[in-house]
Specification:
Elements: E1 9-11, E2 17-19, H1 30-42, E3 47-48, H2 57-66, E4 75-80, H3 87-101, E5 106-111, H4 121-133, E6 137-143, H5 147-157, E7 163-167, H6 175-184, E8 187-191, H7 204-213, H8 217-227, E9 231-232, H9 239-247, H10 255-262
Parallel strand pairs: 3-4, 4-5, 5-6, 6-7, 7-8, 8-9
Antiparallel strand pairs: 1-2
Helix pairs in contact: 1-2, 2-3, 3-4, 4-5, 7-8
The chain binds NADP nicotinamide-adenine-dinucleotide phosphate (NAP).
NADP nicotinamide-adenine-dinucleotide phosphate binds next to helix 9.
């Protein structure tokens, strides 16, 4: 059996740790999705993303169950959708996700988007706090929250999230939000960490650094996330991509290389313009 790469861990304010690279699962559905998740876990992944809205909690759960790896080693994530923020719906949704995943306990449950104009995200957070107290979920966090949303849920419940999963890639490096998370011991998880493997992977600055290290463009971008202390969750359906992505956790870029990649950032660098101030996702 091939040795797995050694994956650095990043740690939140309460001591909860996440591996630097996990598996994104958007569009990994059905039997193929379950097989992809099981294969990734057997290749060394210990963090798996999903969401109620991806309609793949069943496949992710089946993949986790099928993998020949102790369940206790795997961190399974899911997310509460916007239409379930109100207290009663949130409670049922959290339990429903756990049933769909086929787990006794969900390891990490996040609020998917704050949906500020709906203004029910504090109720959603209180439902997650309650679920954690009841032992239904192990750790709780959020996604796409701005500092103002983070501050409000902590002020109103006394509980700080362990994770904020946000859009981060070289076109949108989010320096200020990362600094805020560091200061408060909140782990940053990057969604679309490869910029969905579009134009980003053809950038010449990335090609030059990749060539200097003898690695791929995707590995270069993932090593940039690791160097910045960001947990990335690249989605990959093939074992070849999954394996090479995980191996990027062992690649060390120097400060100048990290800065050169960060310089690709743009004010309007979001992939599809989803600004948490205004974006509403049901
Ligand atoms: N919280 C949120 O609001 C939110 C929003 C978006 C996404 N997410 C999560 O974040 C995960 C990752 O984001 P994403 O799926 O949008 O984008 P991504 O991970 O940046 O990119 C995925 C694309 O990259 C390709 N790819 C993967 N590894 C590659 C490699 N080594 N070389 C070349 N191409 C490669 C994949 O193709 P193959 O499958 O063919 O390998 C796929 O087309 C999602 O799956 C989801 O779990 C969360």
């Amino acid at each position: 059996m091939t040795a797995h790469p050694v994956i650095p861990q990043f740690t939140a304010h309460n001591g909860f740790g996440l591996p630097a690279i996990g598996l994104g699962t958007y569009a990994l559905n059905g039997d193929a999705g379950a097989d992809a998740v099981a294969g990734a876990i057997e290749a060394g992944y210990r963090l798996v993303d999903s969401a109620f809205n991806y309609e793949n909690e069943g496949s992710v759960g089946r993949g986790v169950a099928a993998a020949d790896v102790d369940r206790a080693e795997i961190i399974v994530t899911t997310k509460l959708p916007g239409r379930h923020h109100a207290s009663a719906q949130a409670r049922t949704s959290i339990e429903e996700s756990r049933s769909r995943l086929g787990l006794d306990i969900t390891d990490l449950h996040l609020i998917h988007w704050p949906n500020p104009s709906q203004d029910e995200y504090v109720q959603a957070w209180a439902a997650l706090v309650d679920a954690q107290q009841r032992g239904v979920v192990r750790q709780i966090g959020v996604s796409n929250f701005l500092p103002e949303h983070l501050e409000r849920i902590e002020r109103e419940t006394g509980v700080r999230p362990v994770v904020n999963q946000i859009e981060v890639h070289p076109y949108f490096p989010q320096e200020e939000q990362l600094a805020y998370h560091r200061e408060h011991g909140i782990l940053t998880e990057a969604w679309s960490p490869l910029g969905r493997a579009k134009a980003l992977l053809d950038e010449s600055v990335i090609a030059e650094i990749a060539s200097a290290h003898g690695i791929s463009a995707a590995q270069t971008v993932l090593a940039w996330h690791v160097a910045r202390g960001v947990v990335s969750i690249p989605k990959a359906s093939s074992l070849a991509h999954q394996t090479s992505n995980l191996a990027a956790a062992e690649i060390v870029l120097d400060d100048a290389e990290v800065a050169a990649i960060t310089a690709l950032g743009r004010a309007d660098g979001r992939l599809f313009g989803a600004d948490p101030r205004s974006h509403e996702e049901s």
